[in-house]
Amino acid sequence: MRCMPNTSRFQRISASGSPDGVGFREAAFTTVGAIAMHGARNANVAVGENVAVIGLGLIGLLTVQILKAAGCRVIGIDIDPPEKLALAADLGADVVSNYDGLFERVRAFSPFGGADAVIITAATKSSAPIEPPAAWSGTGGAGSWSSGTSA
């Protein structure tokens, strides 16, 4: 029996639960990847849509990759050092930004002036990640909160 962390609980997975050749390290990403996938599915995005991902930690970076694989255009947003933004760009984000000049970057990102969906994966006690999307999300945009944790 193997245990894999599932946010604050442990989920029991049988030893036969992972395919041959998949080690414990790789299998450990299944739950984290499922959280990212859940956020993308809840946002109900389609090929070609513009999606903003706020928070580029592990879940945010996985979300960027899932959205790119689904054919979306992605803007990655984070307050952390430029290295994290560069990593998001390397992993497929079309545009990356911190909060400096964010409004202008998001407006330029889409011909319609905003994001079709916003997925927030940031872990914070602050409401700061929720405030900007209201100002620049496109008409009829969707929102999805994937993290559910606070710092």
Quick overview of this protein structure:
With 151 residues, the chain is α/β, with parallel strands linked by helices.
Proportion of strand residues: 25-35%
Broad structural category:
alpha/beta
Helix content: 25-40%
List low-pLDDT spans: 1-9, 139-151
Largest sheet: 5 strands, parallel
On the 0 to 100 scale, the average pLDDT is: 79
Query: Tally the helices: what do you get?
Result: 6
Distance between the termini: 31 Å
Rg over CA atoms, rounded to whole Å, is 16 Å
Q: Looking at the chains present, what oligomeric state does this protein adopt?
A: single chain
Helices and strands, in order, run as EEHHEHEHEHEHE
Number of strands: 7
Instruction: Strand order, main sheet: write it out.
Output: 5-4-3-6-7
Q: Using the alpha-carbon principal axes, give the shape.
A: globular
Description:
The chain is of the alpha/beta class and 151 residues long. The protein contains six helices and seven strands. The protein has helices spanning 24-27, 29-42, 58-69, 82-90, 102-109, 131-136; strands at residues 2-6, 9-13, 50-54, 73-77, 95-97, 115-120, 137-145. A five-stranded parallel sheet has the order 5-4-3-6-7, sandwiched between helices. A two-stranded antiparallel ribbon has the order 1-2. A hairpin with a 2-residue loop joins strand 1 (2-6) and strand 2.
